[in-house]
Amino acid sequence: MSGKSAVVCGAGGFIGSHLVKHLKSEGYWVRGVDLKYPEFSPSEADDFVIADLRLAGNWKTVLDRPFDEAYQLAADMGGAGYIFTGEHDAHVMHNSAMINLHMADFGVKCGVRKVFYSSSACMYPEYNQLDPHNPKCAEDTAYPAAPDSEYGWEKLFSERLYFAFNRNHQLDVRVARFHNIFGPEGTWTGGKEKAPAALCRKVAEQSEGGTIEIWGDGEQTRSFLYIDECIDAVRRLMQSSFMGPVNIGSEEMVTINRMAAMIMGVANKQLRVKHISGPTGVRGRNSDNRLIRSQLGWEPSQTLLIGLQKTYSWISGQVEATRSARMESVQANIGAAMAATSR
Questions:
Q1: Does the predicted model carry a pTM greater than 0.90?
Q2: What class has domain 5-319?
Q3: What DSSP letter does each residue of 269-333 carry, written as one string?
């Protein structure tokens, strides 16, 4: 048992809830903080604070003592359907920036010993990601800055914020740039889901011979990292003396069309694909893991296919549960209507 204490901001979200579980398995006392509890399973945090982290007054409850570690994963975020439409830019920038400004400030004031910040591959320049077969996402290619979204600009600003607090206030920080983390208990419907979850849902909802839709021509490329691998890399970074920024992702790059085909294979379904217009982000993106290999000796231990198998199994279960609940509701309504008619 470690006997250490940690606070996880964003503990009601996908990565945060998994991180809480992992820290508990290591013997940490954990406080989770979010606007909501985890959606798909109870939090394992010792203490869970429901708080709006944009408001300075709430941080006195969140950071009320010198925690050994703080993990800042809270952000206004979502998949391409949320980030790249432009309709949410002001909220994305304002909400996330306010959270990070408070984390850095109150982290210093209350004596947090080490802070982890989850940045994103979205902060890399768009001009280096135009070729889907040869994107450039090494850590030292971040400048001249030109992210493809306001979400990416805010991530870049907050990286600089934490390193400024390190220089001026000796806040011990670790910064990682996440590349498309996916897995069970992540958002899978509603508009904020990312590509793996969206495709798993679409495949699960269709019968043999049905059709799924993909935004764009499907030839845009990405790499995707399974949640357990992400948590392992974060913990290694926190246990090291390396501050970052560093990529945490997979180098197994695939087209969206290829990933859809992989998921159909997992589901054992033959489906048609219809390409439609929609936000797609940069043309190509892939994690460059040379730095994390040299600094931490880390690389993913499993293939994308294995992660998709686990994720599809969970999402197909969610789809089936939702379908069953809907049918029960319909049957109940029919029963109620028949009873009313017979009176």
A1: yes
A2: alpha beta
A3: ---EEEEE-----SSB-----HHHHHHH-----S-HHHHHHHHHHHHHHHHHHHHHHHHHHHHHH
